[in-house]
Structures are given as structure tokens and as C-alpha cells.
Amino acid sequence: MTDGLVNTACVCAVLAGGFAFAVFEQTHGLENWTFETQRRQLAGDGRLWAPPIALGEKPDVGWVPWSTDADSGRVYIVDFIYTRCPGLCEGLGAQFRLMQRELQHQHEAVPVSLLSISFDLAGDTPEQLAAYSQRHGADASVWRVIRPADQKEADRLLRALGIVAIADGTGGFVHNSALHVLNQYGQVRGIYDYGNWQAALDGAERLAGEPKSEGARE
């Protein structure tokens, strides 16, 4: 009986050790316990990329904001919204308005654009997107409120960036509220917490000053 208990204990210890090692490996040394932390680790390693997406509403039909062969040097600050959202999305709109104001008042123009991308294609009509833009004073030359051309494009983008949007059972969604800074190629170069818009803007402006070829996907 004693030998059996010892053997069982040894097996359990081996299994526990194997599990601990697997967790250690998969979480970068126990750093990535959450999915959001993993996203940020990937971004920090330069391994989080947004695929080129086609946008489906006028005047953006066929417009692809970033691509692997882009040569614009443009940087994008991106959030993900749905216009019926009464809390986070209104707060994000207020933060984007502050960033827009700073960009508009700079002495020298910098190639930084703001994009609010709706993931609710069924609910966000062109009229609702326009109303959200108007409500927050979006200037289309700086800040566009847009949606992908179709659900397939939307799903591809959300999946690539690890954006979570889960129906909450009341007609709304639980979703990411972070600000994403992307270069001209679609590489995510920074993820910033809700409310940390100044750091996101500062990061985007620094990135806009880097050589255009830096970060190109091979």
C-alpha cells in the first residue's frame, strides 16, 4: 500500500511538473496569464498584425488603410466600437475627440490617422455611423468612423488582433476597449489602456517619425 501511494505521488508530481513547465513555456515565464496580456506580448514582440481590410461604406468603399506593401508612412490609432454602446464607446469617442483636437492644432502635420471600427455590422448602419461621427465631432480628414465591407472581413480582422466582442444578452456587447497603434503595414506597435489616450498619441507620433521601411513584414 505504501509503495502504491509513493508511486501515485511520484506520477502526480511528474504530471504537475509537466503542467507547470507547459504553463511556463506558453505564458512566457508565467507573465501571460490573461489573453489580453498575451496580445500585448505579441505586440511588444512585433508579432501582432492586422490583415489588409476592405471598408464598405461610401466614401471608403475599397479603401484599405494599411497593407504589407504600403509606402505612406501613415500611422493609425484604432479602437473597436458599436454605436449603440452607452458607456465605453462614448468614452472612447470623447478620447478620440481629444486626440483629434491635438492633431489639428499641431504646427506641423504628422501622418497619424484615427480609426473607429465598428464590429457590429448588423446593427451599425451608415446612418448610425454618421450619427456617431457627428455626435463626437469627427473630422473625416483626421478621424473616420468606419466598418469593414462584410462580416467575413470583420471576423478576419477581429480574429487576427484578438479582439473580443461577446453578446451580453441585452442587445449589447462586452468588448475590448484598448487603443491600438498600427503602422502603415498593419503591424501593431502598441496597445494602450482605455483612458490612456495621451500615451497612445505620443506613441503614434514617435512611430510616425521612424523610417518608412521599419517594421515591414517579410
Keywords:
218 residues; alpha/beta; Glutaredoxin; 2 domains; two-stranded antiparallel ribbon; 7 strands; globular
Summarize the helices and strands and which ones pair or pack:
Layout: H1 2-26, H2 35-44, E1 75-81, H3 88-104, E2 112-118, H4 126-136, E3 143-146, H5 151-161, E4 165-167, E5 173-175, E6 179-182, E7 188-192, H6 197-208
Parallel strand pairs: 1-2, 2-3
Antiparallel strand pairs: 1-6, 4-5, 6-7
**Within the CATH hierarchy, at the fold level, what is the topology of the largest domain?**
Glutaredoxin
Counting DSSP H or I runs of 4 or more residues, the number of helices is 6
Give the N-to-C terminal Cα separation: 61 Å
Number of domains: 2
CATH C-level name of the largest domain: Alpha Beta
CATH superfamily of the largest domain: Glutaredoxin
The neighbouring-strand order within the major sheet is: 3-2-1-6-7
Structural class: alpha/beta
How many β-strands, per DSSP? Answer: 7
Q: Provide the CATH architecture of the largest domain.
A: 3-Layer(aba) Sandwich
| CA radius of gyration | 21 Å
Form type: globular
Order of secondary-structure elements:
HHEHEHEHEEEEH
The main β sheet shows up as: 5 strands, mixed
Share of β-strand residues = 15-25%
Average residue-wise pLDDT: 83
The helix content is 25-40%
Low-confidence stretches: 4-33
GO molecular function: metal ion binding
Disulfide bonds: 85-89
Keywords: Copper, Disulfide bond, Metal-binding, Signal
Pfam families: SCO1-SenC
